Amino acid sequence: MEPIVIIGSGLAGYTLARELRKLDQTVPLVIITADDGRYYSKPLLSNALAQGKTADQLAGAFAPAMAEQLNAEVLVFSRVEEIDPVARSVRVAQRIIAYSKLVLALGADPVRPLLAGDATDSVLSVNDLMDYARFRERITGARRVTILGGGLIGCEFANDLSHAGHQVDIVHPALYPLDRLLPEAAAQDLQRGLAGVGVTWHLGHTATAVNRAVAGYAVTLDDGAVIATDAVLAAIGLRPRVTLAQAAGIRAARGIQVNRLLETSVADVYALGDCAEVAGHVLPYVMPLMAQARALAATLAGTPTEVVYPAMPVIVKTPACPVAVATVAGEATGSWQVACGEEGVCALYQDEGQGLLGFALTGKQAGQRQALAKRLPALLP
Ligand code: FAD
Q: Among residues 300, 334, 353, which one ends one of the domains?
């Protein structure tokens, strides 16, 4: 019998393998990964610096231990170059590996900023454990760090770097941070919280160039201002990895498109995690991929099971101003009711009948996220 093949050993790939083994201990399983296959929890990467954690301290089991735990073959440093859905196989270098079912858990690539200058290759991004190791090494001794992007990951790193003693500048094109997730009052609270721990904001601007300077780098902004810095971190977004799938004729748009059974447009090929667009939703967070992994494991074990998404609030790990946000389900429209006070901001997105559709909470108000989440409609019922 050909194995189930999972491409990717991130949280999506390994969680699926774990869930599958709860239901079926014997089906042959192969996990192929371009990286070292070490288990780690990616969310830890953006709040580990202040705790002085090295990449090794954040990591869990090595690939051989994972292979044993999962009763699977784990092929490390093995990049899948081609999927052949007709022959039902994948190619890694010169090796052809046949599959009975194929799961794409390929993750997403950090978007590279378009920059001029002679130091663009020094711009860092942190999207996996190996990136974190490199980043930590590069900022050792760096007093000033400039972050391009004031979204979730940029804000988390800003908070962490500040607490670790660095002087942080953030360049963000919108007039307030996390503008895709938060209403203005909540975003401004986060902005104030981070400013309070020493972060300098450059809102309404983009970086146009990064050049080497006598000491460190010079980041030039679109208004001509120049930030002197010792390291530059780009956190301007993630793009689901779709090209491998597209080259095999598997349909993709923002992500690899799958239905609620996590089936792609090609028979016996599935996708989950950051690379997937599930019934129109691209949700690059841990809770959705856990729900996907449970459903897909059941399907692979013989019981076709659609993924169900409850409301899934996202916590922004910025202790300077904790934030919890639940995005609005589907096409529902409503309006924000915002209350601000000593305890932070409580912004409720409500429909005409006052039904709760989403929320954004900051400071102490973030503590009521679980109670509020219970009142939200499911994202995929
Ligand atoms: P990845 O972990 O990226 O795994 C992709 C895997 O695919 C890798 O093993 C890679 O080597 C492999 N691969 C890719 N292409 C190939 C190929 N061609 N051949 C072989 N292997 C291949 N989410 C939250 O919910 N809460 C948080 O607090 C949070 N914090 C975060 C902080 C940071 C800094 C980042 C970057 C993300 C954070 N997220 C958070 C998002 C969350 O971590 C991700 O949604 C999740 O880890 C994605 O897992 P994944 O397995 O889909 O992708």
A: 300
